[in-house]
Amino acid sequence: MKKVITDYGTKFSAICCSIFGHHYIVSKKVTSHIKEYKCVHCNKEVTTDVRGNLSNLTPELQDINNTLQDIYQKRHRATQQVA
Q: What's the start-to-end Cα distance of the chain, in Å?
């Protein structure tokens, strides 16, 4: 059988996800409230938005998450050194 790769993995995985839904795991913890998720089967990436809903991970949101993670880490390092 020929393996066809799409944007979200193989066609079979994409069909399974469209029928049964995605199986997301945390791929990156940005802050304690915002995380990036990746589907185990089709490799679709999503992130939590301001309201806590899942949104497709666009390059713009990925840049925002990276900046937010840098600020979050610097802030927590500073508070740990003071304490």
A: 60
Residue 34: pLDDT band (50, 70, 90) is very high
> In the chain, which ranges are continuous DSSP H helix?
11-20, 59-82
At 2, the pLDDT band (50, 70, 90 cuts) reads very low
Q: Which amino acid type is present at position 71?
A: I
Measured between alpha carbons, how far is 40 from 77 in angstroms, rounded to an integer? 32
**Quick one: DSSP state of residue 58?**
-
Read off the pTM.
0.78
Identity (one letter) of the amino acid at 2? K
